Amino acid sequence: MPIKHCPHCKTHALEVTNYQGEEIDICRECGGLWFEKNEVNRMIDEINDGPVGDKFETSFGDSLGISELDCPDCDKSLERFHLLEDFHTEIDICRHCDGTWIDKDELEGVENSPELKASLNELNQGTSWKTYFFQFLTQMPVEYNIKPQRKAWVTFGLVALNTLIFTLYFFNKETFGIALELFAMTPADISQGNKVWTLLTCVFLHGSIMHLLGNMYFLYVVGDNLEDVLGHKRFLIWYLVCGLIASLSSYLVSPTSAIPSVGASGAIAGLFGMYLMWFRHASLTFMIIIYQKKLSAAWFFAIWLIINISGALSGPDGIDYGAHIGGFVAGLLIGYFLKNKILQQNPIIRLLNQSEAQLKR
After folding, report:
1. Are 21 and 46 in contact (CB under 8 A)?
2. How far apart are CA 348 and CA 63, in angstroms?
3. Which residues lie closer than 8 Å to 277 by C-beta, 6 or more apart?
4. Which of 163, 230, 297, 341 makes an SS bond possible with 234, Cβ 3.0 to 4.6 Å?
5. Other beta carbons within 10 Å of 5
6. CB crowding 152-181: b at 16 or more within 10 Å, else e
7. pLDDT of residue 48
8. Structure confidence at residue 12 (pLDDT)
9. What is the SS3 assignment for 260?
């Protein structure tokens, strides 16, 4: 059998090895892999427990022209392609013997190409009249993100719990007053060492139906993806931590205030921070009067943060901007310190956060 040489290293011979049940050739110097005809397809089927969508070679992106590399089998020039139309990592193909050369850092994208293609198709779909009509009526954003792999039981539970608590006290003046007295966070009380528990219980109270609906919608929008990557228990813990830090931030802004503070907004702002750190590939629609536009998470939350900072500087208007900003900063810090772990555990999210992923907004 003739010796095959690495297309990159030229002088180094490829070694036959087994990878994902397939016999392939590897360069021990640069880590590149040479797959002969159909070996890549069989590897993808094995990784994904059977066929998932189209074979990856039917979904190539644009041809990038002739490569500087030569085929290890027939010595003819390879041709460069984008792996997928919307994922611009480069692979090298031999048109004569159908072999595929994959650099070491390209392997993860090839392995996950069926799921990666499906995710990009989901993320890059355009807005429709239905999303426009919904946002025009509600002024709420529409999310474009990958579908969670597990049911968001904690998110649904929090929505149900907040709604139940609201219905138990809101529609009766007496119970409304009792709820605020016992469970709303009043900074002046905290300063005197009283009702410390309200730093957390206030997160489960809301002052109006629209306040509740807005918060629960945003909790649902970002909560399901965060719960998917964190797991149920950790998601609940970090939600409560963000709520507590948001309440403390509100207290520190005006520690002598006698105005009660209620709402899950600060805790949900913490979720915004984590979402921004891990789901930069996601899009949220933003409506300017009647014009709807898909924005990256970074732009959407930048606008949200500017609105909150402006509100905080302009003076009291009944909105607890201190809780919003404090919760958001807490979420950013949590997201930053957990980012490497989250991306390591979720290869598709990691790939979608790379510059090779082409996101259409």
Report:
1. yes
2. 24
3. 331, 332, 335, 336, 339
4. 230
5. 18
6. bebbeebbeebeebbeebbeeeeeeeebbe
7. 52
8. 85
9. coil
Is pTM beyond 0.85? Reply is yes
**Which segments in the chain show pLDDT lower than 70?**
1, 19-22, 38-59, 315-317
Q: Domains in the chain, please, with CATH?
A: 15-122 (no CATH), 127-352 (1.20.1540.10)
Residue 51, pLDDT score:
44
Two tokens at 103?
């650099």
- Look up residue 128 and give its two tokens: 């429709």
CA atoms within a 13 Å half-sphere pointing along the CA-CB vector of 161 = 13
Round to whole Å and give the CA distance between 162 and 158.
Answer: 6
Structure token pair of residue 271: 């979720």
> What's the pLDDT score for residue 8?
85
Query: What pLDDT digit, counting tens, does each position of 26-50 carry?
Result: 998 888 988 887 666 666 655 455 4
Token pair listed for 123: 């993320």
What is the three-class DSSP state of 258?
coil
How many whole angstroms separate alpha carbon 43 and alpha carbon 134? 43
